[in-house]
Amino acid sequence: MSTSVLFDVPGPRARARHAVYAIVVVLGILALLGYFGWRLWDADQITPEKWAFLNQPSIVKDLLRGLLGTVSMAVTAIVLAIVFGAVFASGRLSDHLILRLPSIAVIEFFRAVPVLLMMFTLLFSFQSILGTYWSVVVALVLYNGSVLAEVFRAGILAVPKGQSEAAYAVGLRKGQVLRLIQAPQAVSTMLPAIISQCVVALKDTALGYVIGAFEIARRGKLIFTSLEHNNPIAVGLTLLVVFVILNYSISLLARRLEAQMRRRGKKVVHTEAEAAGA
Amino acid sequence: MSTLAEMWPFLRAGFTNTLVLLALSLVLSTILGTVLASMRVSPVLPLRAFGTSYVNIFRNTPLVVMFILIVEGFPPVDIRPNIEAIGLNTFETLAVFALTIYTAAFVCEALRSGVNTVDPGQAEAARAVGMTFTQTLSVIVLPQAFRAVIPPLASVYIALTKNTSVAAAFGVVEATAQLSRMNEQTVAGTGVLFFGIAAGYVVIVWVISGIAAFLERQVATAR
Predict the structure, then answer these.
(1) What is the pLDDT of residues A8-39, one digit of tens each?
(2) What ipTM score was computed for the predicted complex, to two decimals?
(3) Half-sphere exposure of A4 (CA within 13 A, CB side)
(4) Of B76, B82, B63, B153, residue with least CA distance to B111
(5) Chain B contact for A78, CB < 8 A?
(6) Which chain A residues touch B77 with a CB distance below 8 Å?
């Protein structure tokens, strides 16, 4: 039993009571799962035919190609979003109102608008130029870039003030101070946040499902809408497992990195998007 | 001006649905998220394990996959709930379920991080005067956690607002779905339509941030 401040270390009677609670809870969860299992069984969703797609090499290969598409879109989007974020973060940190105001407007606007709405608009307006792949990527860049811009800004502001003062004192210009002094020191504090943002991008790539981009959820749709399979639950659970394994590993990496930095006594910047489920 | 007049009926119908989805899933996910957060800090191991697994699973799943499982998956299994009393059809009701189950994981984490900001001395004092876990949590810790929780919770609700747009792909005609509708009927150029709908979302986000800022000021003065 871990030591929590919220409750005392249980004595013999509390332990007995907790054991009773534990049994009730486990039974309750089993009953709930059992009920859903029974409903699925009753509706012939757990039959081997519903899961047969996992046994067909051509379908599994297609799903893996879809996964490759998902990862490729997410990686492209994150790389471009880092550039976008860096540009608009430095715009927002600028001393000139004429740079600062538009940067604020862009960052705040794209954080408030649903990614799916952007994807639809991009596809409808520039279908011949962008296609589905780049409609997904550009929408993700606009959103994730705006979130990262705020992360970068917070990271830069978290660098101790003495650093930039010293840099100005030895005669560096504003751009040099940002580029040579503040940014390199901020990178390490922002790294966990950037990695966490990859989870957000990966999850949002699945929105490509809606506009028919080549990614894993769309490939899954082709399976579960086919007359032969007709198995949204089986395909949905498969997608869920794939995404949870992928994203959980990334989150774990981010968390480990963060713990390492805290041990070295560094501040760590967080993204609100990862914690808010955007 | 005439463009706006033409867009207005679409926007009104769309945002009415968006707000209904938002309001219902906001309330339900807050309730579920609070229960999950209590589970995650409780003394009973299976409860903690359940809360942790729930958060780890649903936080890492794309919302689209939740919609596939629930909105595409439930009707063929004869789970077709609807809330006719307030005019919600099956798709809309299932969309609320999907949004609730997904958002609850984030509400839980926002609350838990709030619980961690409360001075441990508070809970220790509560235990010292003989309060049980339920009393400590509900009377002492959660009310104080509420303060620290306002900004992250507001972010969760803002994300939820934007996430209601996913329902557009699953048979719910909310604000984002109106883009394709208006586009088909060429009410205006796609760019104009985009900014019209985006403005609606921006207003909702503003209202949520405004309420959050107001509440933060309120509890700040109460200190």
Answers:
(1) 788 888 888 888 988 998 999 999 989 988 88
(2) 0.90
(3) 20
(4) B153
(5) no
(6) 39-40, 42-43, 45, 233
Question: Max alpha carbon distance in chain A (Å)?
Answer: 77
Nearest chain A Cα distance for residue B76, angstroms: 8
DSSP tag of B126: H
- State the DSSP string of B12-75: HHHHHHHHHHHHHHHHHHHHHHHHHHHHHTSS-HHHHHHHHHHHHHHHSS-HHHHHIIIIITTG
How many domains does one find in chain B? Answer: 1
The CATH number for B79's domain is: 1.10.3720.10
The tens digit of pLDDT for each residue in A156-212 reads 998 999 999 999 999 999 889 999 999 999 988 888 889 889 999 999 999 999 998
Query: B163 contacts in A (CB within 8 Å)?
Result: 114, 277-278
Q: Is the pLDDT of residue A269 over 80?
A: no
